[in-house]
Amino acid sequence: MGAQPSLDDQFEAIIRDRAIYPVFQPVVSIADGGVVGFEALARGPAGPYENAAALFEAAGRLGRFADLDWLCADMAGERFMATEFPDLALFVNLDPATMGGPFRQKLLDVLADVMSERQVVIEITERAVTQDPPALMDAVIASRKLSARVALDDVGVEPSSLAAMPLVNPDIIKIDRSVVQAHSPAWAVSHVVNAVLHEAARSGAQILAEGIEDEEHLEVARSLGATLAQGYLFGRPGDLPATVTPSKHVLARVTPRQVPEETPFEMLSRTDPVNPTTEPLLTAMTGHIENQALHTDDSAILVINVADVANLDDEARLRYGYITTRGVEVYVLGREVPPVPSGRVRGVPLDAGDPLVHERTALFIGSHHASGVFARETAAGFDAGICYDRERIVEATLPLVRRLHK
């Protein structure tokens, strides 16, 4: 009797033999109970990799995440295209890194085939917002170029990333089951709900409540402002049904954000006053923005451009490190800035030819409020201004996010 294949060999065989079985769970409109689409979920063959979590854990360990992501999307699309549901949407989970890796074109080809005839919603987990911002932005841009909608998944699992919702600008915001079923502390639930409602009102995004298992959960979903729902009350993951009752309601499509090529100073100086400023005064202005991050109880992002590592002294490193302990994501850009300047601060080195090396910037984005200082070097010091328009601050942050690297 031969030796049993190792777990790693079993996983490789699954990829080689395309032994992924997609199952589908309905997404419904709360207003009329009709189906708007199906979320595709992956299952492996009977054994240690039957569960999706085990599959993706092995894929991550073996460096095969993109392979598995593509295979799951391919199998789900193939199965969905065989149905008679031309007006329903296919919800597909994708890791942003897959959209930017070597499998990008293969994945886009698969999705393009599906989207030529059906609606597709690409779900991106909330955790990706802070783990790999540039891959996330690239995934959003690539998805929308293909006419796909974008859903931000698992919202509420990591409240620190709520402030990044306007950067993603999702068409659909999926509230995690822990919020709907109140497994989170009450203060965390209210915090998540307020941020989601604010973003939905701003952009016109739809709210989808996950984990709806009974009528009580459904009432909670309504109170959260959800118009879409998903959970065992409407159907467990399984084979696609032969017939469905489609909803009369269409899925939202928000206006996509354009990622500008300009610097924050070039963008913000067009609408906000700029005045000659000395370095000490600029430091005080920047400190005002940093203090907002330091004292916020909100989910927030702070992006600092110091231009050069010489402008990042020990006191600033300690201050930014402490701000991260408040649950704020902090990014520091500048020439020769190390990858980890302090604590959980993420450093982003700039090229010598980058126009940002002639600017200073402090941009703060909370769930509801934002502010920023922007400055450019002059022969006498700086030209500087301050902005409190949240939409303008978000727009000015986008070109900085695209410069972030893991």
From TrEMBL:
SUPFAM superfamilies referenced in this protein's UniProt entry, alphabetically: EAL domain-like
UniProt-listed InterPro entries: Cyclic-di-GMP_PDE-like (IPR050706), EAL_dom (IPR001633), EAL_sf (IPR035919)
SMART domains assigned to the protein according to its UniProt record, in alphabetical order: EAL (SM00052)
Record PROSITE patterns: EAL (PS50883)
Gene3D superfamilies referenced in this protein's UniProt entry, alphabetically: EAL domain
UniProt domain EAL: residue ranges: 4-251
Matching PANTHER family: CYCLIC DI-GMP PHOSPHODIESTERASE PDEF, SIGNALING PROTEIN
Protein name per its UniProtKB record: EAL domain-containing protein
Organism of derivation: Asanoa iriomotensis
Lineage: Bacteria, Bacillati, Actinomycetota, Actinomycetes, Micromonosporales
